[in-house]
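Structure tokens please, single chain.
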Amino acid sequence: MAASLLSATAANATGSKADDVVSILESVPTEIPVMQDVSTEEATDLVAPGSASSDAAAIEDVSDVSVSALGENPLSVQLLAAQDAVAVSVSQDGVEVIDNGDNSSTVPLDRADGSLQVVFVIETPDAPSNYAIAVELPEGVVLTQDEGGALLATGANGQLVLGVAPAWAFDAAGTAVPTHYLVEGSEITQVVDHASGDYQYPISADPWLGQRLFSPMTVNRNGTYAGQNVYSGRLTLWGVTMGLSLQGLTIMSTAGLEEFTSQWAAVNNSASLRQQYLCHAIWGRAIIGAGFHWDLELSRPANANYGNVLAHKCNW
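Here you go.
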């Protein structure tokens, strides 16, 4: 597979490089499958699926990416690692792969929840170790890195403006490769230390950017409970990843709670609803115990013992 990836070029115009990259990404051993819920609706119409092009307009089109909260208020993302790209190829199912021109590729993956996963595919030992992107952040918003490696940017009101899941990198055999982020202003560089060991190429690495931890957010998705409203949020895939990070409890208890309270005043005004939410955040954070759907029932009384999750599993 690696050999076919490296031999594919824009000149042969077969699109095989993109198809091989998709095959590689489908086997990366991450918590959330890399190709799950990837949308190809915005794929360039300048390059047909199964083909490739070195046309500058096609490369620019594919490089025009953003992260959003379900299409609202998108933040532009510059693919700095691909600024000297030489070609773009499109897989048979519409996934776009940018040839960076330095024995590496950039694969921007748009997801249905508005998040953006930018995968870098390092093809040979002499490919770069640093891969950068830049995000157009609102004035006054600063990216900070927590001790677990995730990046967070919040507004003056505490609302999450942007988050980046902790970095990962794996070689072709599924072995983890040392990696971390460097942040300078709104520029994010993923450093992949692939010279530190005897790794099998290609190596895949990514920053995964998102804004919404929950979507959709609904009232009474399965009807009322004891005659009163039930407020529900379903974790996005990006939200699951953030929740499973080392600082997941903090992220879900702050930014996640802010999503609920900004959606419904009732959550902000009810001690019970806030306690139920925090209980879910403690009870497994993402999918362990709490499930994908977090349901808060208005009819439940307040419970000072809400943190004792093993006793009531957030249903008291």
